[in-house]
Amino acid sequence: MDDYSTKIKNSAEHLIRNEFPEKALELDTLVSSEVLSFNEVTKIREEIQLPTADDIVAHLANGSKDHPHSTTAANMNNNGSHVENATAYVFNGTVPSNPLISILEDKLRPYILHFLDSVAIIKLWIQLMIPKVEDGNNFGVSVQEDSLAEVRTLETEVAQYIDLTCKYLISRGELIKKVVKYPHVEDFRRSVQSLDEKQFVSLRFVALELRNHYTSVHDLLMKNLEKIKKPRSNQAHSMY
């Protein structure tokens, strides 16, 4: 067990001293790059490729016998009566995810997982440093507990970033279904564009917050490193 404890301590200090500042700098570079620039918002909105009302009008005007997106069905005319063998527009093929959003998610996911994995090690390291409960100088112990509480708070916040993508994809899928079903309703199409734009802004925020979290954890633990490792080193002096 002693060897395991030593391994955890070495891993935690390596993360704090080396990997966290490296990740913070990488994320700072990412946030400053063109891929997360607000100039990309226009491109984000242009990525949706779905049939429009004009597509359907042209499709019906040209006939649909050999059209890859057509089918023959009994439809209703404007008077409410059935028109046999009328042409209905059917979207054929896969509706892709927004590729620019997918790229950003792929870039950020490793940082989210690395932060959560690293924080699990750091929490255990701090807990292993906490001495047994006894009377005397507990100032160092309170530093350990405060540091542990701060790390746990950031861990909870970063864990929520994982849900961001799932909720976005579900919402986008529901909107896409409506766009395909009601291509003549422009608001549905615009709602998909707005959702993609919102996700882009959210991912930019995640990148900024991850950078800040890596930086703050590194700064907090480095400033209090000696108190965390030796919380009662000054106990003898405090007696006089």
Give the full name of the CATH homologous superfamily of the largest domain: Proteasome activator pa28, C-terminal domain
Topology as H/E string? HHHEEHHHHH
Structural class: mainly alpha
The geometry reads as elongated
Give the strand tally: 2
CATH architecture of the largest domain: Up-down Bundle
* Overall tally of structural domains: 2
Number of helices: 8
Mean pLDDT across every amino acid position: 81
CATH class of the largest domain: Mainly Alpha
C-alpha-based Rg, rounded: 28 Å
CATH topology of the largest domain: Four Helix Bundle (Hemerythrin (Met), subunit A)
Strand line-up in the sheet with most strands = 1-2
User: What can be said about the biggest beta sheet?
Assistant: 2 strands, antiparallel
Low-confidence stretches: 65-88, 235-240
Fraction of helical residues: 55-70%
Distance between the termini: 37 Å
Strand content: 5-15%
Please describe what this structure looks like.
With 240 residues, the protein is mainly alpha-helical. The protein folds into two domains: 2-50 and 95-233, Four Helix Bundle (Hemerythrin (Met), subunit A) (Up-down Bundle); 51-94, no CATH class. Helices cover 68% and strands 6% of the residues. The chain has eight helices and two strands, in the order H-H-H-E-E-H-H-H-H-H. The protein has helices at residues 2-32, 41-46, 53-62, 99-129, 139-159, 161-181, 186-223, 225-229, and strands spanning 70-76, 82-89. It has a two-stranded antiparallel ribbon with strand order 1-2. The longest helix has 38 residues, at 186-223. The radius of gyration is 28 Å and the shape is elongated. The chain starts with a helix and ends in an 11-residue tail after the last helix. Mean pLDDT is 81; it is low at 65-88 and 235-240.
